[in-house]
Amino acid sequence: MTRISVAPSFAPRPWLAVVAAGLATFSVVTTEMLPVGLLSSIAEQLGTRTGTVGLTLSLPALLAALFAPIAVIGAGGIDRRWILAGLLALLVVTNLASALAVDIYWLLAARVLVGFCMGGIWAIAGGLAARLVPAEGVGLATSIIFGGVAAASVLGVPLGTWIGDLAGWRWAFAGMALFSAAVLALHLLAMPALPVASSPTLRQLRGQLGNRALQAGLLLTLLLVGGHFMTFTFVRPLLVGVAGIDPRWMGAVLFGYGIAGIGGNFLSGTAAARRTAPTVAAIALGLLLTPVLFLTIGDTVTGGTAVLLVWGLAYGGVSVALMTWVMRAAPHAVEMASALYVGVFNVGIALGSWSGGQLMDGPGLSIMLWTSAGCAGAALILAAVLTARGQPRRTETTNAG
């Protein structure tokens, strides 16, 4: 049986190492989402259509799904401290390459590297908490590491957009390159050695694909993430067209959503460390209520804003709670299970956004909201059944790890 060593490698300053891992996820997610507020200016300067520039968002998400397992298998037995350092260095390079892009093809080539960094950093950093801090601190440490994801939407993307508006989109990418370099320096300073007893293999991948508890976690991920992005991709027309929020206040309202998301991240991280399945069920209930509430009380500014805050609180806990599920389902193959999780998570983003667009252009907004609620409802039923069965259990298939 091939297993990844998960023995703690406590650093002299373990929480500084945790913060370094959290900043790594913040850096890579901010880099992934940076074009959100820069699409029009990029299209104008590179002489292409805004829709084409939109590929700079969807391409990394899809490639991250492919690259995550490739990255951990390709890492072999190399110390994970150096793998993360290499990925952070590559993140610096891809941001610099994006800043210097002379045409859309150059920019898309640079964004391919973002997908590789996304897959690798998420897969490796996601399982670091148990290796960095004692058992009683794992829940908080996991929340900090995945807090970087929530913070990227609250701070990273708006700040990048502000820099782009002030100095041009190239400086937004250049600034991200400098920040990623600073995170790399902190990583080298704070992160302890993270050796592995043996490397992940294709045999281990096949074993994890047969892990029932992990299968359930991946299905929950697809339902919750896909259902969320089905509607969140169109949050602006939802808030403006249904709730009647003035577009000038959109930034402030979404900032409130992000703050609620950070709160949900830490609440869920602490709760999931003790009772994983019930926490996921509670998140699914929140994501079920969100579209239903938009359809019932979300047609006013006050109602729409209140529902958006509930939405942020619920979705903010998705990544950390499901990552905890994955670690419990595959304790001896955390990297491989994390890679599969990252892959399904990004497939959920892509499928959710695409299907939401099809529903928006076809049956309309109400059907899109009901379909999103259906995804969350299916996840709620699955999580409730698994809660009753006491899953996820700390067991694996014979070939799991």
Q: Radius of gyration over alpha carbons?
A: 20 Å
Question: For the residues shown, what is the average pLDDT?
Answer: 82
Helix fraction by DSSP (H/I, runs of at least 4):
over 70%
User: Would you tell me which CATH topology of the largest domain applies?
Assistant: Growth Hormone, Chain: A
- Which strand-content bin applies to the residues? under 5%
CATH architecture assignment of the largest domain: Up-down Bundle
Number of domains: 2
The coarse overall form would be globular
Q: What name goes with the CATH superfamily of the largest domain?
A: MFS general substrate transporter like domains
Description:
By secondary structure, this protein is mainly α. The chain has two domains: 1-200, Growth Hormone, Chain: A (Up-down Bundle), CATH 1.20.1250; 202-394, Growth Hormone, Chain: A, CATH 1.20.1250.20. Helices cover 78% and strands 0% of the residues. It contains 18 helices and no strands. Helix 5 packs antiparallel against helix 9 (169-190), helix 6 packs across helix 17 (334-361) and helix 8 crosses helix 16 (318-329). The longest helix is centred in the middle third of the chain and has 30 residues, at 138-167. The radius of gyration is 20 Å and the shape is globular.
